[in-house]
Amino acid sequence: MSDVDRLVGDVIAGDTRSLAKAISIVEAGSSEAGHILSRLAKHVRGRPVIGFSGPPGSGKSTLIGKFGEYLKGNGLKVAVLAIDPSSPFTGGAVLGDRVRMVSIASAPGVFIRSMATRGARGGVVAYVRSVLRVLDAAGFDFILVETAGAGQTDVSINDVADVVAIVVTPDMGDSIQAIKAGLLEIGDVYVVNKADDSRSSYIASMLEAMLSRGGAKPVVLKTVATRGEGVVELAETLLRKWEQLKTDGELQARRRRQTIAEVVALIMEDFRTAIERFSSDKEFIAEVERLTAEGLDPKSVAREMRSRVLEWVNRL
């Protein structure tokens, strides 16, 4: 039995140390990643993926912790994937998600993993869906995804989650207008957290007015995550939404779109890697200098060099 086969077997058996190792390999995109994913493919069951997005400090991690408690209380295994901002020094994730999810962090049947954005647009890296498949194959009933930002800069959460909850706070006031377009695109459920603040009703009403479409009102709920208030209603709403999507065929449509987005992201990642390698090549630098010296502007130089970049991509 190869090391990869042994690792895959341990992941399927529920060994968390092996699961963490497998995710690290997949996240890094190493040569073993494809072998791991292909061997796990037949064990992927398409379990629900619930995404939470919102501005920093909105209480997403605490809310996820309480939601995880609810799921655990119903005998379900829960995985949490937190997409964090990257450290500018190490490239690693910098937020302490386990601290804010203390209520479930050490519970049996719960697995929490952080991934760094590494500068990826929208806070969702190219390999998130691959990691989600690993978690699915490992036997988790629900996978919860938390992203680093909100609004227009974070719409790619829609490329990985089946159902998306947008979390805001009462102190956002009129600044919520700034993320209106992003909210319209990605939200299924809107949560005003820290609703013990007297401004919460105003924000909830603003969301309902902003996001109403064709007479249909958005689902806007209020929670106080630190006290667990409103969490059961939120959990039941999210689960009903997932079942509704599954019943009416929208879930399948969303996942088709996600697969296309994943393939495009991986192609873009290959191009980015090739260009980075190509740009440090001595022949490339010399050719750019030669074409520039001949009077070509940078845009014309880039056009001239495209075919060579494609050759580098094919070598990957």
What labels describe this entry?
single chain, 316 residues, alpha/beta, Rossmann fold, 3 domains, seven-stranded parallel beta sheet, 51% helix
Give the topology string: H per helix, E per strand: HHHEHEHHEHEEHEHEHHHH
What is the CATH architecture term of the largest domain?
3-Layer(aba) Sandwich
Q: Number of helical runs?
A: 13
Shape type: globular
C-alpha Rg, in Å? Answer: 22 Å
CATH topology of the largest domain: Rossmann fold
Major sheet size, sense and barrel closure: 7 strands, parallel
Please, what is the average pLDDT?
Answer: 85
Strand line-up across the major sheet: 3-2-4-1-5-6-7
Any low-confidence stretches, pLDDT <50, length ≥5?
A: 86-95
Counting structural domains, the number is 3
CATH class of the largest domain: Alpha Beta
What percentage of residues falls in helices of 4 or more residues? 40-55%
CATH superfamily of the largest domain: P-loop containing nucleotide triphosphate hydrolases
Number of strands: 7
Q: Roughly how many Å apart are the termini? A: 28 Å
